[in-house]
Amino acid sequence: MRKLILALPFTLLPLSLAHADDHAHEHGSLDKHEHGMSTLNLALEGNQLEIELESPAMNIVGFEHAASSDADQATVSAARAALEKPLTLFSLPAAAGCVVQATDVESPLFGHDDHDDHDDHDEMHADAKGESHSDIDAEYALTCSKPEALTTLSLAPFFQQFPGTSKVQVQLIAPSGQKGAELTPASPAMDF
What we know:
The protein is α+β, with helices and mostly antiparallel strands. It has one domain. Helices cover about 30% and strands about 30% of the residues. Strand 4 and strand 5 form a beta hairpin. The protein is globular. The two termini are about 20 Å apart.
């Protein structure tokens, strides 16, 4: 599952560098962990669609600290359950016949399973001000019976489920080429 997604950053490097340069000029700096902003990478090869989501936990659950109260634990559980159902979050054409083959949703907020292989990015980290941050990462492998019907992607359900997310940087590699877009609740769709 990771082969296509791992290649995606290198393939789209010129696109990301151009956006990063624009973002840095517009906002004065570029920070990987930006509240309200998430990234979504998609790679389509044959009938296999791989999707990778990276987001600050704040966008998904509304906080970044370890869930200690019953309410926080319920919020984290509900978010994880929602993230484990990508076809309810990422709207793809039904005619494509996509089915989920694998999901992998990780965050320090979810705790650690003994069988998980966690990287440093899964841990809570502190910024220059000493404030704690945590991320949520999700990877999905889908098989689509008619991949030629994958013509659009809408994140409207994702924005409805996680209103703390105001922008999603999407990078896509498909047979038609590579493209990127910044999707928002007001403009949640893009063409493949």
